[in-house]
Design brief:
33% of the residues lie in helices and 19% in strands. By secondary structure, the protein is an alpha/beta fold. The protein has two domains: 7-79 and 244-313 and 454-497, FAD/NAD(P)-binding domain (3-Layer(bba) Sandwich), CATH 3.50.50.60; 87-96 and 130-230 and 327-427, Polyamine Oxidase, Chain A, domain 2 (Alpha-Beta Complex), CATH 3.90.660.10. The strands form five sheets. Strands 1, 2, 10, 11, 12, 13, 14 and 22 form an eight-stranded mixed β-sheet that branches. The protein has a seven-stranded mixed β-sheet with strand order 8-7-17-18-19-16-20, sandwiched between helices. Strands 5-9-6 form a three-stranded antiparallel β-sheet. The protein binds flavin-adenine dinucleotide and 2-acetamido-2-deoxy-beta-D-glucopyranose (8 copies). One 2-acetamido-2-deoxy-beta-D-glucopyranose (NAG) binds next to α2. Residues 254-482 form the Amine oxidase domain. One of its GO terms (biological process) is polyamine catabolic process. Residues 1-22 form the signal peptide.
Length: 528
Amino acid sequence: MPLSTSLFRGGVLAALCQIALAAPPVAQRSAKRSTTCRQTEVVVLGAGVAGITAAQALHNASISDFVIVDRNDYVGGRMHHTTFGDKGDGTPYVVELGANWIQGLHASDPGAPENPVWTFSKKWNVSNEYSDYDSILTYDETGANNYTDVLDEYDDASDVAVANAGTILIENLQDTSARAGFSVVGWKPKEDMHKAAVEWWNWDWDAGYSMDKSSFVFGVTGDNVTFNQFGDNDNFVIDQYGFNKWLVGEASTFLAANDSRLLLNTNVTKVAYSDSGVTAHFTDGECVEAQYAICTFALGVLQNDVVEFEPELPGWKQEAIDQFQMGTYTKIFYQFNETFWPEDTQYFLYADPARRGYYPVWQSLSTEGFFPGSNIIFATVVDEESHRIEKMSDEATMAEGLAVLRAMFPDVEVPEPTAFMYPRWTLEPWTHGSYSNWPIGMTLEKHQNLRANVDALWFAGEHTSAEYFGFLHGSWFEGREVGEKVVAMIKGNGTEMESYAVLHGTTPYSHYTDLNGWPVSSFIDFEE
Ligand SMILES: Cc1cc2nc3c(=O)[nH]c(=O)nc-3n(C[C@H](O)[C@H](O)[C@H](O)COP(=O)(O)OP(=O)(O)OC[C@H]3O[C@@H](n4cnc5c(N)ncnc54)[C@H](O)[C@@H]3O)c2cc1C
Ligand SMILES: *[C@@H]1O[C@H](CO)[C@@H](O)[C@H](O)[C@H]1NC(C)=O
Ligand SMILES: *[C@@H]1O[C@H](CO)[C@@H](O)[C@H](O)[C@H]1NC(C)=O
Ligand SMILES: *[C@@H]1O[C@H](CO)[C@@H](O)[C@H](O)[C@H]1NC(C)=O
Ligand SMILES: *[C@@H]1O[C@H](CO)[C@@H](O)[C@H](O)[C@H]1NC(C)=O
Ligand SMILES: *[C@@H]1O[C@H](CO)[C@@H](O)[C@H](O)[C@H]1NC(C)=O
Ligand SMILES: *[C@@H]1O[C@H](CO)[C@@H](O)[C@H](O)[C@H]1NC(C)=O
Ligand SMILES: *[C@@H]1O[C@H](CO)[C@@H](O)[C@H](O)[C@H]1NC(C)=O
Ligand SMILES: *[C@@H]1O[C@H](CO)[C@@H](O)[C@H](O)[C@H]1NC(C)=O
């Protein structure tokens, strides 16, 4: 279904936003229900990828009696864009604050599966460009300094470490930190800041956490499942209607404009649940009562007591929530009056002499294929640097980044930027971070406790995906799976999800298959 330009700008999106909050109450179906709350069969908490996909799974099974609730005024959640800078004609660029890459597209092997985010991006014409990680130049405090040989050194160590992690996984051996897993094969950056920068580029940039804080086995497996399966290309989205264009498009296939089942601008404060139903309470005193709820709130929301659960979530659930890690990934955008960096290069890696992860990666959008002539470049920081920088003023952060650029390009006069902006993901009450990471000591069983339903309350989101945590496609697969499980419950042949009240620290690899119905061996040896 072709969507006209205006539909995206004002139409579908605006229409989906302008929901009749005062829609006539749906007739009650059950006498024992409260008389004040709107009644529905399934309430989907969150209109990000997981929530919209779960609702679509209900729709696909001919269940139309659902309500989707989101505190924001758009469909997309962490697939979130804003306007920035100037195109030269007084109009701004659209840039992504959250998810930006389609990660893993479609492996060349015949019959290989396709990343659903790639499928939908093609279907809805989401503009994107191949990200060339070989288009990189290296810098330190002295300016340009060629240490690309260290990138090769890392790759060699990584090949051995990744194979070792596979052995640990398949033979059900003890997991360790990624730090230890890489040290064993001789990758020891110690105080070498070039090595620290290269390690950041390869690990922290993706995981959002350092090797010291990440699981070795699941950190490696997480990348393997996506990139061995869908191929290792990443495409960067530059669509001027935003990356969420595809999700808005999919939503429009089953939600009418102004559909009264989509409640945007609706802040959930409390979720009361039992084995016979769920009531979601909103800031405005309104509520929705349902037989089932699918909660897709980010891990950071669950960790930070933003929403009250009544009764409190059981210990096995809460401990899994508290252990899994919510990382932060912060993009810091600059626009200048000129492109003073090499304009044919996509990435610039900076090794600070004193501080690991200090404005380490600069990504040019002024390059062919992206926004040539835009003079836009952005830095990315994660984890502790994100927490630090997100507490600072725009002025202070802008000055730090500029000082780094002036160190990297000592031979040019780096001007003051004409535009500057960055999001503060750690402080957003609807996410409290960017995406999740697998910590040391989390087993597949404990992760399953993160996924499992508690009575009529079900969970989905990037963090509930054992295979694709941190990725958009993780949210999609989880949204579909949990949506289908709730369909089965409604149709009378469903089963509750397995959970483990007692944990023994074991991570039988076979649990991947048992718990998620996924033939793990097929991706580990996919390329063989
Ligand atoms: C900076 C950043 C970069 C990323 N880069 C990539 C990338 O390049 N590629 C990739 O694949 N993935 C990336 N990701 C991850 C990707 O964005 C997420 O995996 C995915 O968008 C999560 O979708 P979700 O539906 O699970 O959760 P969400 O998108 O968080 O959806 C949950 C919804 O719940 C709503 N909500 C929360 N609390 C409440 C409340 N109290 N009341 C009502 N509503 C509430 C929120 O508003 C939100 O819309 C990135 C994320 C970030 C933040
Ligand atoms: C996507 O673009 C193609 C080619 O420009 C066009 O034929 C098609 O209708 C577009 N699809 C949508 C959904 O806009
Ligand atoms: C619902 O069905 C449509 C049409 O077959 C399909 O494209 C979409 O992926 C399905 N959604 C889910 C969540 O299964
Ligand atoms: C950096 O050095 C490598 C050899 O280690 C060389 O292949 C590459 O071309 C050099 N890059 C630049 C930008 O000089
Ligand atoms: C990752 O994939 C490689 C290549 O297929 C494989 O050798 C390795 O065992 C895998 N490791 C893990 C932890 O999945
Ligand atoms: C949706 O609501 C808006 C504002 O109330 C209205 O202008 C528009 O016509 C509605 N669209 C449809 C398709 O009902
Ligand atoms: C949403 O609810 C939370 C508490 O549950 C509250 O702190 C916050 O202020 C509310 N936000 C809005 C916009 O009402
Ligand atoms: C950009 O601005 C600086 C002053 O801040 C100026 O010296 C420089 O010439 C300008 N560049 C262009 C291309 O206008
Ligand atoms: C449940 O029943 C439906 C038909 O009503 C069927 O399509 C589906 O496969 C069944 N699911 C399971 C898990 O048996």
